Amino acid sequence: MGKDWDVFLDAIQVFGGAYIIFIGFDMKRTGVLTQYSLIGKNVVLSQAPDIPGFIEAMYRKYIICGILFLIPGLIGLYLNSKGLLDNTTYFILTGILAADLIVFAYFLLKAQKRYLVS
């Protein structure tokens, strides 16, 4: 994989992390949940029994997981731009990303089942 491709993937990771953080702050600020809030296709928001409960349970997790998504992307982007990203660092950053995705998906599915699916 070339350096340009790595930088592109790191940039996507940075934007993804920023988006997750934005969603967390926005749903807490507005009290509104949209289909763009990274919820499942099977969730019908008009029939969700407890949207405020979901927001209260998840907005901190959105922010924390977004930060854990954003920081490795920024580190990888910086190291790639300087040509300093070695294999060990790459695997550590990838491991952080993978663990974050798994944990976020777990909490998100658990909260969807509890608060959004009747």
Short overview:
The chain is mainly alpha-helical and 118 residues long. The protein contains 3 helices and no strands.
Summarize the SSE layout with pairings:
Blueprint: H1 3-30, H2 51-82, H3 87-116
Helix pairs in contact: 1-2, 2-3
Into which percentage range does the β-strand content fall? under 5%
The H/E string reads HHH
Helix content: over 70%
Principal-axes shape call: elongated
Distance between the termini: 45 Å
In DSSP terms (H or I, runs of 4 or more residues), the helix count works out at 3
Poorly predicted runs are none
Radius of gyration: 16 Å
Kindly state the number of beta strands: 0
The description of the largest β-sheet is: none
Secondary-structure-derived class: mainly alpha
Average residue-wise pLDDT: 91
Structural summary, described in words:
- Helices cover about 75% and strands about 0% of the residues.
- It contains three helices and no strands.
- It is elongated and about 50 Å long.
- The N and C termini lie far apart (about 45 Å).
